[in-house]
Please model this.
Amino acid sequence: MGAGPPPAVQGAGAHDCAKGLELAHLLAEDALDEALQAGLMGFQPCPACDPQVAGLLGPAQARLLAAWAARERYQRRQARLQGQAEVRAARANRGAATATSGPARGNPLPPAAAAALARAKARAQETPST
Model:
């Protein structure tokens, strides 16, 4: 029997414990972008991997997932707030347009009501008071 690689390393796309060491080294150097490009989020340690590597990579993956989820929630909230602000602005613009196209500020009555009021005032002035 020949001494080949352990079963966990054989085959295409097989697990590579050295990859975990490389990722741990990149994280220790604070090279997060490089670690991500090297496959940090897809790496799953096997039982043969160094426990310290697994203890470092697992929490780093969890922190990244939590940060990405928080960023997504923040972006959704910002989009929702932006939409609400646009609705409020549209309502304010619509209200301002209605106010400027309505009756004049000096005379809030419609023209027919203003004319009737003017006639009533004229009649009241014509009749002598007792």
About this structure: The first helix runs from residue 17 to 28. The helical segments are 17-28, 32-37, 51-101, 111-126.
